[in-house]
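user: Kindly work through both lines:
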Amino acid sequence: MSVQTAPARRTHTETSAYRLSFGRELRSEWIKLATVRSTWWSIAITAALTAGIAVLIAASVPADSGFPGIQAVVSPIQFTMLLAGILGAIAVTGEYSTGMIRSTLTANPVRGGVLAAKATVLAAFMFVASLVMFAVSAAIVTPILAGKDLGIDWADFEGAILPVLVASVTMAVFALIGVAFGFIIRNGAGAIAATVGLLFVLPVVTSMFGMAGEAWKWIQDAANYLPAAAAQNVILPQDDWGLTWQVASLTLAGWVVAGMLGAWAVLRNRDA
């Protein structure tokens, strides 16, 4: 009688040759961002506003007024910053609303890596998109301004090119603020409300205290450290504005760091 022996049990598990690297995380986040229609609708609306407002400003400026032409190109950021922040917020909350965040965190249990990858992709995407928008706007308004002797000297790096680069960076900053609120609040309406409140509502509220007397001047001083005000001081520094460009740059960096740390703390300690 023959005796059948059981097959030997495996004492180890074969590992895949593929590992989840940060590069693959970035690729995954880019696919999720690029395949959502709301992303491209947001960019299309932002581009239309950027070009449209720039044309209106350039057309309304009197000839020989000494108006810096580059200001017409970058001034629309006062409105488009909201769309950048909202895009950052919905890029995060969309995953929570659909439940995709569970698959994301299962594929990559290192939650700090998830936050870093999403923030990197959103910031890079918004910077490049903004750079293209400002370039197109500049190409449109340059002939209008030239006809009023207010042409932009593109050979002047600090006076023309640098403001466009800095404005594109600040758009990325606004997107990261939206990302932070998205991870902290995890609800689309709540994250958008918080982003709009910080970027738009608070500056409007604080401006109401401008004529309230010296007793309320501290509110005006504090308002200079809000993201929108700091961005203006960085893009086109003025001597009579509240902050120097160095302090304004540190202020924007501080908002990003504080937001990312808050998002990481919540993401790390809260279930998906």
Residues 11-17 have pLDDT under 50 and may be disordered. The chain has one domain: 22-269. The radius of gyration is 24 Å.
